[in-house]
Amino acid sequence: MVTVNEAKQRIFSETFLNSTATRPTSEAAGFVLAADVVAPLSMPSFRQSSMDGYAILHSDIVQKDVFLKIAAESRAGQSELQPLISGNAIRIFTGAPVPDGATAVIMQEHTSLLSGQVIIHEFPVPPGKNVREIGKQISQGAVALTKGTYLTPGSIGFLLGMNVQVVEVYSKPKTGLLVTGDELLKPGEPLVHGKVYESNSAMLIAALQQEGISDIEIKYAKDDFQSTVDALEALSQTNDLVLTTGGVSVGDYDFVEKALQEIGAETIFYKVRQKPGKPLLFAKRQEKLFFALPGNPASSLVCYYEYVLPAIRKMTGRTDLFLRKLKMPVKHAYSFDGERDEFLKAFVEEDHVVPLDGQESFALRSFAIANAIIYLPVTQHVVAEGDLVEVHLLPF
Ligand SMILES: Nc1nc2c(c(=O)[nH]1)N[C@H]1C(S)=C(S)[C@@H](COP(=O)(O)OP(=O)(O)OC[C@H]3O[C@@H](n4cnc5c(N)ncnc54)[C@H](O)[C@@H]3O)O[C@H]1N2
Ligand code: MOO
């Protein structure tokens, strides 16, 4: 049995970056850049008006209410433009190219019109006013985003604004999921005494999808050694990461540990001093990682968030590996016996955290409404109202 911290350290020292792949930028949100992106063009690539109004020469505006002749128009998207000469103004719109010779744009609200002329009510006008200069945002050849950047919707918009159509990113692990248990019913099957509906696979898939993993291969094994071995071997052939649920405890029909040994996976640790999730097993065969999650649904999900998710994040190039950590006062007293650290399903309110009712490892009712996990090390087994506790925010 290892401690929570030892388990995390062992996982990280055995987990490496995944391979990289080229991806269309439009489908790269949630991935991490595996190489710098250099700006192929300047942004903006031409002098651009930031207002609807009049392009002028700022030095023409020597006092309030100067009259200028409206010589032409510049609309967004216009590529042919005559230059501006002193004494003239060019009607211009937001995003349109500023003509050569113009040094400022006056908002139309600060002007009025009289017999084909525009009167500029603003004075003085600094050069560059309402003009976005070439490269103001980024210059051609500069590093636009560095390797290691987590791509957000904002990043996608920024990159496609420079016509960067593909990016090099760390691939998400191909993930296999083995569901074990003779007692499991498929959704929709009639309820039979002694059986339970299989829900861990959909729960884990939903959690994996939040990390952008959609390439998931599922297999089901009966509680027998050979079918567990065969399913594990098959999944490990085609996947980088294999998760199993159930069958990892010490009962006569728990075969996952032995089956992992049989296929030649090396156990890195088995059993963690924690509640729930004690029987968690982590194993490795070459670069492939195996997490055997306990069958109890709440144990399975806690182990996913605390161990599997950080490993996935490390494989995919992220640097923020763990659930976001906070220290918060607890709303009411809580205590526990025993010698295991505890992870409690919890709900973060504005300025405190509430441990929810129903902390047993079979019970998901609390998890169903939780937005956080409280981590209580065994040294903190009595918590009074208002004491600070470590909170791990669930990803939403
Ligand atoms: N003698 C001991 N017994 C147990 C120990 C121990 O140390 N000594 N540890 C307990 C702990 S802690 C846990 S956690 C469980 C883990 O057991 P398994 O991983 O072998 O899980 P199963 O026995 O297969 O299932 C447990 C429970 O969860 C239900 N289950 C399983 N799979 C699913 C699924 N896909 N969807 C929904 N529910 C599922 C299953 O029906 C059981 O009720 O072991 C304790 N025992
Ligand atoms: O550790 Mo188990 O997950 O308590 O029920």
Q: Tell me the CATH architecture of the largest domain.
A: 3-Layer(aba) Sandwich
Overall number of structural domains: 4
CATH superfamily of the largest domain: MoaB/Mog-like domain
Tell me the β content: 25-35%
Distance between the termini: 32 Å
What sort of overall outline do the alpha carbons produce when their principal axes are compared? elongated
Description:
With 396 residues, the protein is α+β, with helices and mostly antiparallel strands. It has 4 domains: 160 residues, 3-Layer(aba) Sandwich (Molybdenum Cofactor Biosythetic Enzyme, Chain A), CATH 3.40.980.10; 54 residues, Alpha-Beta Complex (Molybdopterin biosynthesis moea protein, domain 2); 85 residues, Molybdopterin biosynthesis moea protein, domain 3 (Molybdopterin biosynthesis moeA protein, domain 3, Beta Complex), CATH 2.170.190.11; 70 residues, MoeA, C-terminal, domain IV (Beta-clip, Beta Barrel), CATH 2.40.340. The chain is built from 6 helices and 28 strands. The strands form 8 sheets. Strands 7-4-6-5-9-8 form a 6-stranded mixed sheet, with no helix packed on it. The chain is elongated. The two termini are 32 Å apart. The mean pLDDT is 97. Bound molecules: ligand LQZAQKY5 and molybdate ion. The site of molybdate ion (MOO) has 8 residues, from loops.
